[in-house]
User: Which sequence fits this backbone?
């Protein structure tokens, strides 16, 4: 049974809801939502799949986005961790770069490390910067150490000096430790980050080892339960780079699953941009717990080869994302006499007060309900009835403390949340020299379309796109993803002096490895796409820019690559130095296995719909009679004028006065200012 002859399913777990999308062989889409069960994510997945109404035996492709690894890192709930290093280099990780990120913050404290100094063990071995062995690995010392590691730890990171140039010592040390202590998760630095810069390589390896047992246990448990229920194919998981890989490979490359959950929305943004002919998008995903921002630039997800999470550098290609604790479940409270929203969330249990599930603290969802932005008869996720009286009681407790009435507090809380989200967008755009006014805003998640226009007005963004089924878009985006593996090899040479044949030889070896990885995931040669690039810098600089490389590398091609680097440097920093030598630091190959794309059936044209009902909604402190439309009543070309509300299962779109909404033939809603 092939993917095109069977159902394709994707499941995305959020802090409040678990979303499932199912694509039939005929192209029809089924959607489902289930409340996320804290500590039982595998049960949430199975419940969401059950609500779709398709037997797992009929599924030929199953993709999952999970926050298990990221949560383990953020909550410091990962493995008891040890590190094995070259003798004399025990403190590389603790010293770091000796930098102070917040120079003028006198209260700054460095984020705690993932292990203590006494958890770092030295062994005899040494490799020079040129990759030559200066001191052989003392295998007896490693074997003796393994027994101690097995007794006290759950995971081990093996990080030797210059292992990116000579990997054999790390490989052998891992073999010895795994043989003597088979229950340990052992991660070697050359497997996850074969690059220069020892501290960053060590940090990446530690992060991967720290989350490996947690993600391994979870994926193993989930895959077992899915197989028991009849799933005939391997489970696939999303990666931080926007691609997918098998769950088995995800366990061995745990660091690549850190943004497995939110990245599906960015992949969906690329697909929607292609449908609409838009190649610059700000993607904002506001769910129940968090607000995630990412970019689509020139029709592709904005990816960086390095990211930092909670002070930990991680050398793995990832969609650049900025996250904020602002969602529908973010709790409204008073702190130091001022109104605050989040980052604490009511989550799925007990949830917002209006869910009537035991929550007594007001949230943004309660505020939107009291302002009339969510009609009272709405059922969240299609099943959860709303209790306005419970929301009023919760909001009144905070309102009394601040001397406000309930409506003013609700409006103020929404404004505080909107300001924080606008700042998060600026962090990813303006702070990096990018003008958000040249982008469209793609708003999704259960709460995103409620706040989208306010964000667009604050940032002078001209157009907002609310995609079809915005409440489950991240899961839909996973069905758009290809298999992907990113390979990198350290390579130090001046572009204008290195023989082109040497570059071609290294790229040929990387491409051969890339094809092997794709073949291991049952990708046929016809579906393989290999994209080469290089990390370049001016001589003497510390950081690099990534520039595409041609398939065939010769002297002329290297000259063109150098010119492309000058242009990229000029665009990023506003100046360049064409007279300076350009160094190639790393060579990269992105191995892509192209997968089938779900077709989007066109939406039929319909007459302009009449409102199904009316609501009283507060805009800028004044209540307005507001038309309420069911999104299913809209046809291609349908246009509704604000103020109005467009309702659908799992999401509410707010169209304020002075704005209009038009449905496209693909089922997306375009919000624009009235002219």
Assistant:
């Amino acid at each position: 049974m092939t993917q095109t002859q069977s159902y394709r399913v994707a499941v995305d777990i959020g802090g409040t809801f678990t979303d499932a999308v199912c694509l039939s062989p005929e192209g029809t889409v089924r959607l489902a939502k289930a409340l996320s069960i804290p500590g039982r994510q595998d049960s949430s997945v199975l419940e969401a799949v059950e609500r779709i109404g398709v037997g797992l035996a009929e599924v030929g492709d199953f993709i999952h986005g999970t926050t298990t690894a990221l949560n383990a890192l953020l909550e410091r709930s990962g493995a008891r961790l040890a590190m094995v290093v070259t003798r004399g280099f025990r403190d590389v990780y603790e010293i770091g770069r000796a930098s102070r990120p917040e120079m003028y913050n006198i209260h700054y404290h460095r984020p705690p490390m993932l292990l203590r100094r006494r958890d770092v063990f030295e062994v005899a071995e040494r490799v020079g910067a040129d990759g030559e062995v200066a001191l052989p690995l003392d295998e007896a010392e490693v074997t003796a150490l393994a027994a101690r590691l097995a007794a006290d730890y759950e995971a081990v990171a093996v990080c030797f000096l210059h292992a990116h140039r000579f990997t054999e010592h790390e490989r052998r040390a891992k073999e010895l430790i795994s043989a003597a202590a088979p229950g340990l998760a052992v991660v070697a630095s050359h497997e996850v980050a074969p690059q220069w810069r020892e501290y960053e390589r060590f940090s990446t390896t530690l992060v991967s080892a720290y989350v490996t047992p947690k993600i391994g246990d979870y994926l193993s448990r989930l895959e077992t339960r899915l197989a028991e229920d009849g799933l005939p194919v391997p489970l696939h998981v999303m990666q931080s780079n926007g691609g997918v890989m098998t769950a088995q490979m995800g366990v061995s490359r745990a660091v690549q699953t850190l943004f497995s959950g939110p990245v599906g929305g960015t992949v969906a943004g690329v697909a929607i941009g292609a449908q609409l002919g838009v190649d610059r998008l700000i993607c904002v995903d506001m769910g129940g717990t968090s607000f995630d921002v990412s970019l689509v630039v020139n029709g592709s997800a904005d990816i960086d080869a390095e990211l930092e999470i909670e002070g930990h550098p991680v050398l793995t290609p990832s969609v650049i994302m900025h996250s904020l604790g602002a969602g529908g479940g973010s709790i409204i409270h008073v702190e130091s006499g001022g109104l605050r929203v989040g980052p604490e969330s009511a989550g799925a249990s007990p949830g917002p007060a209006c869910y009537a599930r035991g929550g007594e603290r007001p949230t943004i969802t309660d505020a939107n309900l009291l302002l009339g932005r969510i009609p009272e008869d709405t059922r969240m996720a299609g099943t959860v009835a709303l209790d306005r009286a419970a929301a009023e009681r919760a909001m009144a407790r905070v309102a009394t403390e601040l001397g406000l009435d309930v409506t003013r507090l609700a409006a103020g809380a929404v404004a505080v949340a909107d300001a924080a989200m606008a700042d998060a967008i600026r962090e990813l755009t303006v702070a990096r020299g990018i003008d958000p006014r040249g982008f469209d805003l793609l708003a999704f998640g259960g709460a995103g379309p409620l706040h989208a226009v306010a964000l667009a007005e604050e940032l002078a963004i001209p157009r907002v796109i609310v995609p079809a089924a915005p409440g489950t878009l991240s899961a839909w985006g996973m069905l758009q993803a290809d298999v992907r593996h990113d390979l990198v090899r350290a390579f130090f040479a001046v572009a204008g002096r290195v023989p082109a044949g040497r570059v071609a030889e290294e790229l040929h070896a990387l491409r051969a490895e890339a094809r092997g990885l794709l073949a291991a995931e049952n990708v046929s040669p016809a579906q393989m796409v290999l994209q080469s690039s290089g990390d370049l810098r001016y001589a003497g600089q510390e950081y690099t820019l990534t520039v595409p490389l041609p398939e065939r590398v010769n002297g002329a091609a290297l000259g063109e690559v150098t010119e492309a680097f000058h242009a990229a440097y000029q665009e990023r920093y506003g100046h360049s130095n064409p007279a300076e030598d350009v160094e190639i630091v790393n060579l990269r190959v992105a191995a892509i296995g192209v997968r089938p794309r779900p077709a989007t059936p066109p939406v039929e044209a319909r007459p302009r719909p009449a409102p199904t009902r009316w609501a009283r909604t507060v805009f800028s402190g004044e209540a307005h009679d507001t038309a309420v439309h069911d999104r299913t009543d809209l046809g291609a070309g349908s246009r509704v004028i604000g103020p109005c509300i467009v309702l659908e299962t799992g999401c509410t779109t707010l169209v304020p006065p002075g704005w209009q909404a038009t449905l496209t033939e693909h089922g997306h809603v375009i919000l624009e200012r009235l002219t």
About this structure: The mean pLDDT is 90. Residues 73-215 form one domain.
